[in-house]
Amino acid sequence: MRADNPYDNARLLRLATYASTATAVMLIGVKGAAWFMTGSLSLMASLVDSLMDAAASLINLLAVRYSLKSADQDHQFGHGKAESLAGLAQACFIGGSAIFLLMHAAERLSHPQPLLEINIGLWVMAFAMTATLGLLAFQGYVIRQTNSAAIRADALHYQSDLLTNAAAITALFFAASGWPLLDPLGALGIAGYILYSAWRIGREAMQVLMDHELPEETRQRICDIVLAHGIVLGLHGLRTRQSGQTMLIQFHLDLDQALPLAEAHRVADEVENAIMAAFPQADVLIHQDPRNPARYRRNPQECQDLPETRES
Questions:
Q1: Which terminus of the chain has fewer CB atoms gathered within 10 Å of its CB, N or C?
Q2: What angle do CA 268, 269, 273 make, to 5 degrees?
Q3: What integer pLDDT is reported at residue 298 of this predicted model?
Q4: For the chain, which residues make up each domain, given as ranges?
């Protein structure tokens, strides 16, 4: 269940960004030391991934703080899209790190090098996986409560960390067993997954920035709430989008043309309050349209009145 209190959301978002940044810095330290001692390219791949995570977490920290600012004269819809801008920046960081790793892995395949102190590398990667699992559990809770795009993008980084850490452990294990070429091959696999993660994060950020409609199940729930009101004839022109923590919802509400203006306004207020009860952080805009009930039909499946029966 999502947190309905914006202040609780803000506190959770800040805690998640602090935890992410602290975890990334800690992992950079231990992975850097392990890479220096072992010379493993798989460990370097995991280290670069953590460096990108730290940069992304810092971007998130700044973006979340900015996105939580109240609306002002210049940004009357708020600053929520800063979260998606942060996600787009993270996609660029992650994609760049993947290309860097691909280049180094190709070079190591051409010129193999022996690995040192492999046991240290294995212990470090096991510790990294444990720390990452703990952070992901907390981030998952925050995402369920806030639906934050920035925290979701950050969690994708750390989900990829689990795979990169597992790949690094596998590569180190086989390198210790006399298969040194599996170290750069493991790095290639890690780089490929990082590149895929960058694409996923960038796609989601672009959908929000381009005002992609909310999921169909959310739109249908909005329609069901509106049509549950006894006086409402129907609705049409439903448009939705997401901006940070805010869902923006607007539609035309079809009402009996004989209703007095004050009564029509009261009905619209009741519909808006019902939507806000279901989606506490929604911003709802309703336009009332007069209709002739005797000639009006609506299509419940389409959640709008049928075009051929609508009156102008």
A1: C
A2: 120
A3: 67
A4: 6-209, 216-309
